[in-house]
Design a protein that fits this description.
Blueprint: H1 15-21, E1 28-37, E2 44-54, E3 59-63, H2 70-77, E4 85-90, E5 93-94, H3 100-110, E6 111-115, H4 126-136, H5 141-154, H6 170-182, E7 188-192, H7 200-217, E8 220-224, E9 236-241, E10 244-247
Parallel strand pairs: 3-8, 3-9, 6-7, 7-8
Antiparallel strand pairs: 1-2, 1-4, 4-5, 9-10
Helix pairs in contact: 4-5, 4-6, 5-6, 6-7
This protein binds adenosine-5'-diphosphate and magnesium ion.
């Protein structure tokens, strides 16, 4: 597990250094990760020494029953939380070396998040929701409008651009969320039970869309799901059980 990935980022906490590192090695490397909540007798050991890699361009599914540590693991890989022990690199960049601003840039520019509850802004239209990450990056408005139109068309919602989330079905809302996650051309998609609120048929369609965008956009995806029929679309499946990882595919 030792190589030179990330060496060139020494002292480089900027988005530029992160982007350069994204060209090499596995997209995600997790080594001996530990995360507990609380202390003493009340402590919950959510992750007890988890190690794995997500190769560039793959869709990796993370399964495990409720409470097995999936969300904890995704939050750590996405830089939303810090581990008690162990190491996480995304695109060769050690997350522990990034300061607040570095982590913010990583989350904004290099990672796309998709949540079970969609997380769309109710008062914004589908198109405006998709454009939010590009506004945060202060992208050129013309570039933003073009990209938003392309993404809405890619997820099959070109005719729904002006509708608000409340006027869309659950499956359509999750398609908007997928388009939004892709807005800044992230290297890594992180999805936490993206089909958890959808019926089986709609859920499968959303997973097939994710499968397709991983190929067409060249992104890497780490997707937590405990829906057995969806696991077949993954390049590999990791299973968490009580904070331990069991790789079986
Ligand atoms: N903020 C928290 N405070 C205390 N315990 C937590 C917190 N978040 C998660 N846990 C506990 O950590 C374990 C793993 O939870 P989680 O990562 O949410 O699992 P999953 O996503 O697989 O359902 C569970 O026992 C859960 O109750
Ligand atoms: Mg969870």
């Amino acid at each position: 597990m030792s190589d030179n990935i990330g060496r060139t980022s020494t002292g480089g906490q900027s988005g530029v250094a992160v982007a350069e590192d994204l060209a090499r090695g596995p997209m995600v490397r997790v080594e001996d990760l530990h995360r507990s909540y609380g202390t003493g007798a009340a402590a919950v050991h959510a992750l007890r020494g988890v190690s794995f890699e997500v190769p560039r361009g793959e869709l990796v599914a993370l399964k495990g029953r409720s409470g097995s540590g999936k969300t904890t693991l995704l939050n750590l890989v996405g830089g939303l939380d810090s581990p008690d022990g162990g190491r996480i690199t995304v695109g060769g960049t050690d997350l522990a070396e990034l300061g607040e601003n570095g982590l913010l840039e990583l989350r904004r520019d290099r990672i796309g998040f998709i949540f079970q509850s969609f997380g769309l802004i109710p008062i914004l239209t589908a198109a405006e929701n998709v454009g939010v990450p590009m506004r945060l990056r202060k992208a050129d408005p013309r570039e933003r409008e073009d990209r938003v139109a392309l993404l809405l068309s890619m997820v099959g919602l070109a005719d729904h651009a002006a509708q608000r989330p409340g006027e869309l079905s659950g499956g359509q809302q999750q398609r908007v969320a997928i388009a939004r996650a892709l807005a800044n051309r992230p290297a890594l998609l992180i999805a936490d039970e993206p089909t958890g609120q959808l019926d089986a048929e709609t859920g499968l369609a959303v997973m097939e869309l994710l499968r397709a965008v991983v190929r067409s956009e060249g992104v890497t995806a780490l997707v937590a799901t405990h829906d057995a029929q969806l696991l077949g679309l993954a390049d590999r499946v990791l299973e968490l059980s009580d904070g331990h990882l069991v790789e079986y595919e």
